[in-house]
Amino acid sequence: MTSSQRRLSPTEQRNPASSGLDDLDTLGVLQVLNSEDRAVIDAVAAALPQLAELVDIAAERLCRGGRVHYFGAGTSGRLGVLDASELLPTFNLEPGRVIGHIAGGRAALVNAVENAEDSEADGRAVGTELGPDDVAIGIAASGSTPYVGGALDAARTAGAHTVLISNNPYASLADKAEDHIVLDTGPEVITGSTRLKAGTAQKLTLNGFSTALMVALGRTWDNLMVSVVATNEKLRERTVRILREAADLDEAEARSLLERCNGDLKTAIVVSFTEAAPARAASTLESHDRSVRAAIAELVGTSTSSEAGDSSGPDNAGPGTVGA
């Protein structure tokens, strides 16, 4: 299909709402941008059922040793790399489990690399590294980036689950993926500038995907960031506050418990709810992929299993329902 035959992506069409943009004063320009950004929330909301299915698929595959790979070029590629890189400090996710790939490599993170996105071969070369337990997520506003197409082709051949996230309902790459998540944000305020609405929608979608995935993997406790890596004083103090919130302790109690648990927040939470020794709490966490809820469920279940008629148990072991 030639470029003249292909339907023009909405992201490349002119937006009548921003006509005369350069005649507006600064506040007027910002108001147009802000007004158009409101479409982003609705576009992402419409995609949530598909996104939820993707989270469940990815969680299952990660639990059996698989990985999630993002593929993109330009803004889309940078957003994928950004999302993957933020999971270590926030959720203590081990390196190599969620990976961002950008056309043109590291240099493209800060500077445009000429023609990198047009290389289907480069995308294919990276996609061949995936396996049947992996998930490949291609991110492309127009849904036509050759680099992304090559990666999805190769990943699908390798047995990975493949998904395209685009802002084009008519994306030409849609048939290269098993699922197509459309973020229909329409024409941009500045024609073709997909760093605007399209990029914002992609950022929100990746935020939602990776956060829900980390919740599914037990990397939070209630709505607390219990997997945070305390690499500086600010984060060490946050660790104390989180333990106080989670276990209803005063500051002295929280600091003492953290010291007994060698500074490991998750171990301290498990100890506070189960009264297990720190070593046992830590080993139980490791056997449950560091899930606080799963560790508490096992330890509370073990301690109460012989008590007939005892109403205590996992459901009473902390906020919410104890589960994965």
Question: How does this model look, in words?
Answer:
This protein has 324 residues and is α/β, with parallel strands linked by helices. It is built from 11 helices and 5 strands; from the N terminus they run αβααβαβαββαααααα. The chain has helices spanning 26-63, 74-85, 87-91, 120-127, 146-157, 197-216, 233-247, 251-260, 265-274, 278-287, 292-304, and strands spanning 68-72, 98-102, 135-140, 161-166, 179-182. The chain has a 5-stranded parallel sheet, sandwiched between helices. It is globular. The model is unreliable at 1-5 and 304-324 (pLDDT under 50).
Give the tags:
globular; single chain; 324 residues; alpha/beta; disordered C terminus
Number of separate helices: 11
Task: Average the pLDDT over all residues and give the rounded result.
Answer: 91
N→C terminal distance? 47 Å
Along the chain, the helix and strand elements come as: HEHHEHEHEEHHHHHH
Widest sheet: strand order? 2-1-3-4-5
Strand content: 5-15%
For the biggest sheet, the summary is: 5 strands, parallel
Weakly predicted, low-confidence segments? 1-5, 304-324
Helix content range:
40-55%
Radius of gyration: 23 Å
Number of strands: 5
Structural classification? alpha/beta
Form type: globular
